[in-house]
Amino acid sequence: MIDLHVHTNNSDGTHTTEEVLDMAVSAGLGAVAITDHDTVRGIREALELGEKKGIRVIPGIEINAKYEERNTHIVGLFIDPDSKPLAEFSNDLVGRRLRRNIAMIERLQELGYNVDFDDFPDFVRGQVMTKGNFGKVLVEKGYFATTGEAIEALMEKGRPAYIPKVSCTPMEAVDVIHQAGGLAFVAHFHQICRKGIDLAEEICRRILEYGADGLETRYSEFDDTLRARAEAMAAEYGKLRSGGSDYHGSTVKPGLRIGTGYGDLYVPDEYLTAMDEYLAGRGK
Ligand SMILES: [Zn+2]
Ligand SMILES: [Zn+2]
Description:
By secondary structure, the protein is an alpha/beta fold.
């Protein structure tokens, strides 16, 4: 059993790389991929620790992209953590997010709200600050009764403090993962559009047709239907299959465990074998 989608505190997970690897060892996993959001910061350490602890670590990343306003996550596996194009891409994304956060705070200040950088602890980490984060601070400061009211009044499209999100396209994410020598997978395709699974599948198909190497066919939240839809896409396009728990730590997703997800997740070793063979065939 393996787990090819796991987060650490190098992005929004709550555990250190070492803790995550210890959990993976305890869970009896044969391999684990570290796939933090938009960063490869922890990969070198993970590879070294993996060797010491006797577990295979696959160097990865999860790039948060947008396709026609919809969140589309691309997981890169077997990436070179020292890849220059990938480092530039990641720094640029973080930089663009920081600039958006700054613009948002300045806009609120111009509008007369007494908010400052210190009010946002995640700000320094270059995280995407959501409307919810801003709304919460405005509520804490007594400007609004609820976060929803703050968002409605100020931050929805057309409102005075609205500033569009910055992101990349899933196609750009696929390209940069390839430049870094990795394989690109569409992650949890159902989340692309929670309300309309057909649209989610349609967008997933476009990314596969563009050149992604595969998609996640096993995922913590997948039921039989979603698994079957994902399997069918992989088979139709002759693409690789991947899968994982998307573990973030028990406080972020309660009840979810590394390896087994909510209890019935099982990502077979064959997925990794197929990737190894594919990479070997490519001459890597
Ligand atoms: Zn994701
Ligand atoms: Zn994830």
